Amino acid sequence: MDDIFSDLPDLEPGTVWLTGAGPGDPGLLTLLALKGLRQADVIVYDALVDETCLKRARPGVVLEYAGKRGGKPSSRQRDISLRLVELARAGKRVLRLKGGDPLVFGRGGEEALTLVDHDIPFRIVPGITAGIGGLAYAGIPVTHREINHTVTFLTGHDSSGLIPDRIDWQAVSRGSPVIVMYMAMKHMGEITRQLIDAGRAPAEPVAFVCNAATASQAVVVTTLQHAERDVAQAGLEPPAIVVVGEVVRLREGLDWLGALSGKVLVADPIGSRSLKDPA
């Protein structure tokens, strides 16, 4: 098994790897991420890293939690960045492990620039972002040729915890058939009002995927007009990915996890010839 790592770079002492762990399932770790787990002296991990991924680390590694969760006590970003500098200067092999991809709403860029400022060598190891991989585990593709040729990824809150005021909801509504939202549950009522006011149909399908690609994954399918009510009634809590658009209907045909538990899938959930014609 170790032969698969032989031609991959090593995590060297005094170096930091900013690494994506993917959305949850340890099977979605990249080979480089897994090699980093096996070589690191210290793993600084965030709140969205599933514990099953950490179990792949080498015995004796030091695990340091540096999670940031809205509404809960969290490490300050500057403190996390400077901790990476401190560990690297001490000659440690440092794995900074983040859920999803470190550069997709993950502040990996901020941490990397701090390392640059302190002359710390680093490598960026991309991971599967939850907005793609997490939705795939719910049977929802972000693109489908009969539905959309564009998709927009956005965050539901900024560093202050508020909805980012630089999002042009009119433009997003008009220009993107499919919208994938990170960290949006807290402001779901306001976001759905913004989208409906911008012209999206109240009956447009919406899906919430909580704890995506983990053993506790939960999915709620609803509509824009009922999204806030239905997610509250379901008792779902973050972390969650929210997707708006007709691709949500494909879950009836692509819920492969449900099929493993006996769910009967619909062969043509949107009446599309593309689902029958491989050409």
From TrEMBL:
One of its GO terms (biological process) is methylation. Keywords: Cobalamin biosynthesis, Methyltransferase, Porphyrin biosynthesis, S-adenosyl-L-methionine, Transferase. InterPro entries: 4pyrrol_Mease (IPR000878), 4pyrrol_Methylase_sf (IPR035996), 4pyrrole_Mease_sub1 (IPR014777), 4pyrrole_Mease_sub2 (IPR014776), CobA/CysG_C (IPR006366), Siro_Cobalamin_biosynth (IPR050161), Uropor_MeTrfase_CS (IPR003043). One of its GO terms (molecular function) is uroporphyrin-III C-methyltransferase activity. It comes from the Bacteria. Its EC number is 2.1.1.107. CDD domains: SUMT (cd11642). Residues 16-226 form the Tetrapyrrole methylase domain. Pathway: Cofactor biosynthesis; adenosylcobalamin biosynthesis; precorrin-2 from uroporphyrinogen III: step 1/1; Porphyrin-containing compound metabolism; siroheme biosynthesis; precorrin-2 from uroporphyrinogen III: step 1/1. Belongs to the precorrin methyltransferase family. This is uroporphyrinogen-III C-methyltransferase. It comes from Rhizobium setariae.
